[in-house]
Design a protein that fits this description.
Length: about 200
């Protein structure tokens, strides 16, 4: 199992039995988070997507992007972010996924990452940049306990591979205005050329 290496300020949402899921605020400074948010927003190769819903194609409510770590076109800022994440989590990350939530209307429905697209027992780590958004984390088994977690700029959220079996997570739409947020997701994939753009 993998967990955040530093205990200072870490919030433990699920233990090793069903997770782990851990949250660490202020993994990087507010100033650095703002700089990385601007740089990634300007340099990343953003895409829109379509999905089937209620028997019709609709737009995916966020923008996304993906880079293999070895991709020569990867923006250097993402490699700098990877170096920071590796100071907190000991895992052989080879894939970085990006999601841009442009405003309160963008979201991702409750889901879990597809296990065959992850290397077994390796974690997913999310670095949040930009506006704070709420992530809902809901246990699949009764009594379906739910946590609402505020993902602040500069924070890290770690979800163990095992957590995908026991929890769903999502970013709901909001009823009040909010600025853009970028989620930078670090994964270990068996095939880094494929990505379903799913996370958070």
């Amino acid at each position: 199992m993998q967990s955040l290496l530093f205990d200072r300020g870490v919030q433990r949402i699920a233990d090793e039995t069903t997770g782990p899921i851990t949250y660490q605020p202020e993994a990087i400074s507010r100033e650095l988070a703002e700089k990385w948010f601007s740089t990634i927003g300007a340099q990343a190769d953003w895409h829109s997507g379509m999905r089937m819903m209620y028997e019709r194609m609709v737009g995916v409510p966020r923008l996304h992007g993906h880079y293999a770590i070895e991709d020569p076109a990867i923006p250097p800022v993402l490699l700098a972010a990877l170096d920071v994440v590796k100071q907190h989590v000991d895992a052989p990350f080879n894939s970085i996924g990006l999601n841009l939530y442009r405003d309160e209307h963008d979201s991702v429905a409750p889901h879990n990452d597809t296990l065959h697209e992850l290397v077994a027992h390796q974690p997913i780590v999310l670095l949040s940049l930009g506006a704070t958004r709420t992530m809902t984390i809901r246990r699949k088994e009764p009594p379906h306990l739910k946590t609402e977690l505020e993902l602040e700029a500069g924070s890290l959220l770690l979800m163990g591979w095992n957590a995908q079996l026991h929890y769903d997570h999502g970013i709901p739409k909001l009823r009040y205005p909010v600025g853009p947020r970028i989620s930078v997701a670090f994964r270990v994939r068996p095939d880094v050329q494929s990505d379903t753009w799913g996370t958070r």
